[in-house]
Description:
Elements: H1 15-34, H2 41-63, E1 70-76, E2 79-84, E3 87-88, E4 100-102, E5 108-111, E6 116-119, E7 130-136, E8 139-145
Antiparallel strand pairs: 1-2, 1-6, 2-3, 2-4, 5-7, 7-8
Amino acid sequence: xxxxxxxxxxxxxxxxxxxxxxxxxxxxxxxxxxxxxxxxxxxxxxxxxxxxxxxxxxxxxxxxxxxxxxxxxxxxxxxxxxxxxxxxxxxxxxxxxxxxxxxxxxxxxxxxxxxxxxxxxxxxxxxxxxxxxxxxxxxxxxxxxxxxxxxxx
Length: 153
């Protein structure tokens, strides 16, 4: 007589395999859920809007008359206005409905209030390098206009 070997077909997972899979899933889930998030999205967006408005004023100055200056005036910590020849311009800021942009309540200017960043027809700032600091909570971002070149970063 021939003996045949019994083939085991367990048909499932062992308890150890299930526990290992659950532990791995818990680790992956905790890493995904814990990702540190910052609440500075508005601050970053407002800094980019300010940069684009500064570039707009710079382009207007470069396309204007030799004696015209265009700039952004930071009257207070909550808003700024497009200026032409040190007075409020009649042109509207891009993406706005007026010459003035108002920051959301969470964002404010902490450095540069009361100043005007004016540009010559060469695109360089009239007053040399200038830095504007925007703040939201404990986070802050500097927007700098470089002397001579007018590079905005």
